[in-house]
Design brief:
18% strand; 12 strands; Cobalt-precorrin-4 Transmethylase, domain 1; disordered C terminus; Methyltransferase, Cobalt-precorrin-4 Transmethylase, Domain 2; 5-stranded mixed β-sheet; 10 helices
């Protein structure tokens, strides 16, 4: 069987059922390149290795292209789990694996989990049903600028909808786009197109390292985002609210700036103890193995 298992965004948010499935898999392939798991994916890898699981920390080329055939071949002989930060099939590249597995008649199990989509909306003070299409802002590549995010923003704003933007992340190369880069990209695109979608006084909600002990929410004007220095190596998400806000949304945004709104509850020891309980074993000593 092939299982795609969501890990949530942090140790607090890995579903118990998903954790139990991981603990019983024969082979676990950990997607290490699409995002960051808090406090660190190493604690989960350590746990799985300590109970003698076959754990592979995968880079992009190990879960795409020709590598898919190898994964599917193994999954006909044993339980192979692909562990994905967040939700296994939201904002990732794993749909092809599912399609190929279904074509070959391979039994597949998809286990969802908390993603940045519902998390960002939940902690933003903005009403979920007023969100429009989502887009990712990426840096220019070889002089080519990806203009689609501005199209999404323009269409959403024309319908008085909020816009959630993911920012480019390249974990393998240590690149995390900052909010000022992202907003400058939008401004540059609209100047080139002669548009007037985003003004200096528009509100931008910045969410940093969602569901970590460093989570921070900033509510700034566009011009403030551009001028601000942001911390390196941080996962940022942006929300540009609709022009016309509900009174409760408007009031909440005024109070939200520079707030945390979340305190982690679990640590590595807690994860070990929960895993022991699920397995009915006492052999999960996280001090015995260091993956990095």
């Amino acid at each position: 069987m092939l299982r795609l298992i969501g890990l949530g965004l942090s140790v607090d948010f890995i579903p118990l059922g998903n954790l139990k499935k991981l603990l019983t898999c024969d082979k676990i392939i950990v997607d290490s390149y699409t995002s960051v798991w808090f406090p660190h994916i190493g604690i989960l890898i350590r746990l799985l290795s300590n109970i003698k699981k076959e754990v592979v920390v995968a880079k992009r080329d190990m879960l795409e292209g020709k590598a898919i055939d190898s994964i599917l071949g193994e999954s006909t002989k044993k339980d192979v789990c692909i562990a994905v930060i967040g939700d296994p099939l939201i904002a990732t590249t794993h749909h092809t694996i599912v399609v190929e597995a279904l074509k070959k008649g391979i039994e597949i199990d998809i286990s969802p989990a908390t993603s940045i989509f519902n998390t960002a909306i939940s902690i933003s003070c903005l009403q979920a049903y007023k969100f429009g299409k989502i887009a990712t802002i990426v840096s220019s590549k070889n002089g080519i600028v990806y203009e689609y995010p501005l199209i999404v923003l323009k269409n959403n704003r024309s319908q008085n909808l909020h816009t959630l933007f993911l920012l480019e992340v390249d974990v393998e190369h240590g690149y995390y786009m900052k909010p000022n880069e992202a907003v400058k990209t939008l401004i540059d695109i609209q100047k080139r197109q002669g548009e007037d979608v985003l003004s200096n006084n528009d509100i931008v909600v910045v969410i940093a390292d969602a569901l970590s002990d460093r989570q921070r929410i900033l509510v700034l004007k566009t011009e403030e985002v551009i001028k601000k220095e942001f911390i390196e190596n941080t996962l940022y998400t942006l929300i540009i609210p609709a022009k016309n806000l509900h009174p409760v949304e408007e009031e909440c945004l005024k109070l939200l700036h520079n707030k945390e709104l979340y305190k982690p509850a679990l640590n590595e020891t807690d994860l070990d103890n929960i895993s022991k309980s699920l397995l009915g074993k006492a052999n999960c000593n996280s001090d015995e193995f260091t993956p990095y």
